[in-house]
Structures are given as C-alpha cells and as structure tokens.
C-alpha cells in the first residue's frame, strides 16, 4: 500500500519540509499518519478524513473509542462513573480557572461531556450552558438540569443574543478541523472583558519527545485528532488571529505514570509509587517539565 504524502502543511500552507512524525495512528486506517511542518511546527493528520466519516465517528463510535484508550482511571462507559473518576481533573483545573470564576457571570463549555466541569461552575454560582454532540451525554446533562445544546448553531438559533463572560473547552481544540474558524466563532460570543480558557494536549509531551517509548507511540497519535499543537504552533495560530492571548505550560501526568509507560508499556499508574516518591519530588519533576515547556498540556487564555 502506498502512503499518500501531503503537498503542504494543513495549518500554515508551507510546501517545503513536511516530514513524517508518526507512522502509526490509533484507530486509523493504514494510510493515516501524522506529519510535522518545520515552518510552523504543526503536527497534523493526513490524509484528512472526510466530513462524512468524521460525523459518523462522533455519532457512533466516539465513547467506545475513548473507553478503549482510557486505561483504568477514567470511565467513559457510564456517565455517573465518568463524573466520579474526573473529580481530580476538576481540582487540578480549578487552580488556574479560579481567577475567571465569578458568581452571576455566564459560562459556555464546548464539549462538556457528562458535565463534571459544569457542575463545578454551577456550584460557584455561574450561569452555565454546555455544548455536547454526543446524544447519550446530552440526555444525561438534561436529566441533571444542565442547559445544553448539541451544537453551537443550536445555541445561536435558540438564544440569538447569548454572549458569555467565560468560554472554556478541555481537550476539544485538537479535534477541530479548522482551528481559526473555531476560535473566531467563540471570540464573537465573548462579552467585552470576557475570556476563553482552553486545555490542549501539548506535543512536547516528554513521553513522545524525550523518552520515545514504542508502546506510547502506538497509543498517543489518535485518529480523533486533526492536530497536535506545541507552544510554537499555538503561537502561530494565535498570532494569525491577532487576539490578546497567553500560553501556559501544564503537566497532568505524574512520574509514576511515566514509569508505568516505561515499565509496562501501558497507560495509567498515576500515583502508583506514592509510597516511595514524596510530594516534593512529584512537584519538582512536574515543575522541571513545565519550566522547559516539555510537558503534556498547554493552557490557552484569550482575553477580549
Ligand atoms: Zn506549517
């Protein structure tokens, strides 16, 4: 089978120096690969899946696909468990979200899944609305009295004048085919003085960029992602949009998770060696990764 090669970068359009970054794509067909652009540093999926295939994937396969990737800590099969097993994410995210949270202000979360983040915003007194394309999660959100729509278009049709103080999304941006249109639409929905805060996987994750673990390489690159961003390629996107923004390093996975990948070639293992490894060591390792931006996550903050 011949593998098709891109003529140009999907993000910046550069035609030179497009190199193969990842030959194996989790959930992909044999021809899907991730390519890297030397110009803007974007890593992108090629060939580009058709819109039809992508729509069917989110409609029919996404939750099962995520379950097959989640390891043991995150439960995608059952909505109640999904909320419980993600409470550590709420705690972690709240550290950087807190300055943006204010009682009575309005919040929009795009891709809110079971609403475990929306619960926290609601508890803090924010008027929250979610967007969730999965029918199963959408029903669940409505049962729990969260206001949620299937698409942003549905929200705009139902609430023509809706504008928000805070718009958030967590691990959504990398799934988006057109990152520029996606952020422009959100910027339009922001009130003056409002902010967008997003969490995005960072391709400078040490598991791929430094340790180069074969099992991780087979796992990390996902058919559900159009792009893997670094600090540099995020700067390219944001500079082109011309908004006031900030990029912050974040490290979600701890040293025990990294050891587990090296030892067992499997996801999971967060906290596994906590009897041996002190909090001080954990914090210090995390800080080293973040200080060098060799970390698994980038936080985007846009201010209007
Ligand atoms: Zn490029």
Explain this structure to me?
The protein has 304 residues and is of the alpha/beta class. 38% of the residues lie in helices and 20% in strands. The chain binds zinc ion. Zinc ion binds at residues 9, 11-12, 14, 37, 39-40, 42.
Give a quick rundown of the structure.
The chain contains twelve helices and eleven strands. The protein has helices at residues 51-69, 79-85, 87-97, 116-123, 135-143, 152-158, 179-189, 206-209, 214-220, 231-241, 255-264, 279-291, and strands spanning 18-22, 33-37, 43-46, 106-110, 127-131, 147-149, 164-170, 190-201, 227-228, 244-250, 297-303.
Oligomeric state of this protein: single chain
Principal-axis shape equals: globular
Secondary-structure element series: EEEHHHEHEHEHEHEHHEHEHHE
> SS-based structural class?
alpha/beta
Mean pLDDT across every amino acid position: 94
Terminal CA distance: 49 Å
Main β-sheet, spatial strand arrangement:
6-5-4-7-8-11-10
Strand element count: 11
SSE layout and pairing:
Blueprint: E1 18-22, E2 33-37, E3 43-46, H1 51-69, H2 79-85, H3 87-97, E4 106-110, H4 116-123, E5 127-131, H5 135-143, E6 147-149, H6 152-158, E7 164-170, H7 179-189, E8 190-201, H8 206-209, H9 214-220, E9 227-228, H10 231-241, E10 244-250, H11 255-264, H12 279-291, E11 297-303
Parallel strand pairs: 4-5, 4-7, 5-6, 7-8
Antiparallel strand pairs: 1-2, 2-3, 3-9, 8-11, 10-11
Bound molecules: zinc ion.
Residues 9, 11-12, 14, 37, 39-40, 42 line the site of zinc ion.
